Amino acid sequence: MSDEIPEELITGILSKLQVSSSIARFRCVCKSWRRLLSDPSFIRKNNLASSASDHQFMVEWTDRTGDVFRHVHRLISPDTLEPLLPSPLQLPFDQNRPRRAGDCPSFSVVGCCNGLLCIVEYRGRKDEDLILWNPATSEFRVLPPSPVANPSREFLIGAVGFGFDSERDDYRIVRQFFFDELGIGRRHYISEVYSLRNNCWWRLPDGGCPLLGSWRIPQCRKGKMYWWRSTGQSKGLVFDSFDIASELFEVVEVHYDSEKPYDTPNCLLNEESMVAVFPEYYEENQDEYGDRKFSTSWDVWVLLKYWVSESWMKLYVVTSPPGMIIESCVGLSSGLKYFFNTVPTDMVDEHGDYSGDRSLIPFHLETGEFGDVLIEGICVKVITNYVPSRVSLQDYLPQSPNIISNVSDFYHHKLMEIDTWDSIFDL
C-alpha cells in the first residue's frame, strides 16, 4: 500500500488543528508526510492559512497601580467586541527577565504582521529592547542590540516598522532614531534594518525623512510601510514610505479639497482604498504651545484611488456622544469600526486639560451609532489586523551566524568595525 497521501488531503487535515498546534510532530507519520512537512513553501502556506473567523482585535491600554504605569493587552472579538479571554494577555517574555533596580518595564506593540507582533520594551529613555512574539504559540525572540545605538549618547527612537519581505521570505524591522550633535544643535537621523532570517542589524545609507513617533503603527501595503503626517496649511497628507525589499524611503503627498485645515489624522490602508479620520480643528481650542486639546467632531474621508488627490471624498462626520468629548481616534478597522478615546465633558478644566482615565468607545459607521464602553483606562491603540498563525520564529533561525544574504551586507560589516560613535559619520 502506498504511503503517498495527496497534499490537498494533508492540508485539509492540518487546517482542522488549532492554530497553537505545531505541525512538526506529524513528520513521523510517514516518509511522504516528512518530506512534505519539511518543505519550506508548504510550511509557509500552512502557517498563514487562517480564515476570516480567526481575525481578532487587540486592545492596548495603560494600567496604573499607584505610581506604576504598565501597558496591558487584551484580545476582543471583531464582531461582538467582547473579550476572547477572561483576563489580559500574559506576556511570556515578561517573566524572569533580568532587571536593574528601579526598572519598571512597559511593553507596547509597534507592528503586526502574519500573526507576529513586534513589541518594544521601554525601560528608560536610552534602554529599549525589541521583541518578536507569536501569541498563538507563545514563541518569542528578544532581538540582539543595535550596533549603532550608543548608550553614552542621548538618542531617541523616532519610529519602528515591521513587515514581511516576500521576495526573501524574511521578516524585517526598520527603526529610526535621532540625536542632536553636541555643541552644534544639528539633528541627525539614522535608520537601520533587522533581518529575522539573518538575526542581525545593519545601518541604511539613507537615513530617511524624519518619521513619526513609534507609538503610531505604520500601515503596510504591497511590501511597503507607510507613516502619515499632516502638511499643515497645505491641506494634505504626507506619507513617508519604506520599501521592505529595496530598503528605500519615499515621500508621497496627497492633497484634499476642504474649506478648513485639519490636525494629523488616523489612517487605514487596505488594497482598495484609504480611509482617514480627521479631528476638526479650532483655533480657540489650543494651549499656549498651539497644540489642540479636544475636538467635538471628527470627519471621515476616503481616498477612492491611491495617490490621486482628486479621488478624496468626505464620507461621514462623527460627533461626540452626549456628555463626552472625543480625545483621539486610536483604531480603525476594514469592517467600518472606529475606536475613540473619550473624556467626560464636565471633567475638562478651562484649559482643556483632563488627567483621569479615558473611555474607549467604538463607533459603527454602518449605523452611525456609538457602542458601549469597552475599557475604562488610557487606551493607547487598537490593533485591528491581528490574525493568529503558526508562523514559527524557529524556522527563521540562520543556519550559521556567519551567513548573511542581504544586499546591505556591506553596511552591516562596516558597523562591526566602528570603534567610536563619531566615526559613524564617515560611513
From TrEMBL:
<dbReference type="InterPro" id="IPR006527">
    <property type="entry name" value="F-box-assoc_dom_typ1"/>
</dbReference>
<dbReference type="Pfam" id="PF07734">
    <property type="entry name" value="FBA_1"/>
</dbReference>
<dbReference type="Pfam" id="PF12937">
    <property type="entry name" value="F-box-like"/>
</dbReference>
<dbReference type="InterPro" id="IPR017451">
    <property type="entry name" value="F-box-assoc_interact_dom"/>
</dbReference>
<protein>
    <recommendedName>
        <fullName>F-box domain-containing protein</fullName>
    </recommendedName>
</protein>
<dbReference type="InterPro" id="IPR001810">
    <property type="entry name" value="F-box_dom"/>
</dbReference>
<dbReference type="InterPro" id="IPR036047">
    <property type="entry name" value="F-box-like_dom_sf"/>
</dbReference>
<dbReference type="InterPro" id="IPR050796">
    <property type="entry name" value="SCF_F-box_component"/>
</dbReference>
<feature type="domain" description="F-box">
    <location>
        <begin position="1"/>
        <end position="46"/>
    </location>
</feature>
